[in-house]
Amino acid sequence: MKRLENKTALITGGAGSIGLVTAKKFIEQGARVVLVDLNEDALKNAVASLESSQASYIVADVSQSSQVENYAKIATERLGKIDIFFNNAGIEGVVKPITEYPEDVFDKVIAVNVKGVFMGCKYMLPLMRDGGSLIITSSVAGLQGSAGTSAYNTSKHAVIGVMRSVALEAAPRKIRVNSVHPSPVDNRMMRSLESGFNPDGAAAKAQMEKVIPLGRYAEPAEIGDLVLFLASDESKYITGTTQVIDGGMGA
C-alpha cells in the first residue's frame, strides 16, 4: 500500500521548487493534491509537469485573508476533507542591514511568511480531517540569526510560535503540526539571496557551503522526503516539533 493512499493534500507555494517536488512525491504515494500559488502560468506549468490527473491548482495570494479563505473552500469542494496541509509559501525579501532595510519589503515578507501561515492555519484547520498532518516551512533562519536578512529571520522565527500554538490546539483532534527547517536549498530563492550577499553569486554559495558540515546545499527533493515522512502515518506520534534538515549546520 502506498504511504498516502486515498489521502488529500493542499500545498501553498506549490509552483516553487520545494512545493512542486513535494507534490510529486505525494502523488506517487497515492495522494490527490491541490497546488496554491500566486502566478497562474507557473501553476499551469507545475501541474503539467506532474503529468497526473491527481493534481490541480488554485491561484491565490496567501497574504490576503479573503483569498486564503477562498482557496480553502475550493480545495475542500474538490477533495473533501483535507488530510495534509503543507503551509509552505514564502518569500526571501532583500539582503540589507537593518538600518537600510526597506519598510515596505519588511511588511511584505511578514505578510506572506507569517500572516500567510497564520491565515492558512486559521482557515484550513477546520476543514482538515481528524488525524491529519499540518506542516509549516520555516528555515535554519528560524533558529539562528544572520546579518542582512532581518525580515526573513524574523518571519521564520515567528512561524515556530504559530506551529507550537496550533499543535496544542489541534492535538485533541489528533492533527499533528510540525515545522521544517532547511539549510540553504539549491533553488531560485538561494540564487536571489546569494546575489544580495555578494555580486559574485558563485562566491557567496561557496562561502555558505563552507559552514555546512556535509559541504553542500540541500536538494529540494531532500526537503520533500522529510515533508512526506511528516505527512505520512509514520509520523503519527510527532507533533509540536522543529524538524531540522541542515546538513549539520546546527551542530
From TrEMBL:
It comes from the Bacteria. This is NAD(P)-dependent dehydrogenase (Short-subunit alcohol dehydrogenase family). PROSITE patterns: ADH_SHORT. It comes from Pedobacter duraquae. InterPro entries: NAD(P)-bd_dom_sf, Sc_DH/Rdtase_CS, SDR_fam. GO terms for molecular function: oxidoreductase activity, acting on the CH-OH group of donors, NAD or NADP as acceptor. Belongs to the short-chain dehydrogenases/reductases (SDR) family.
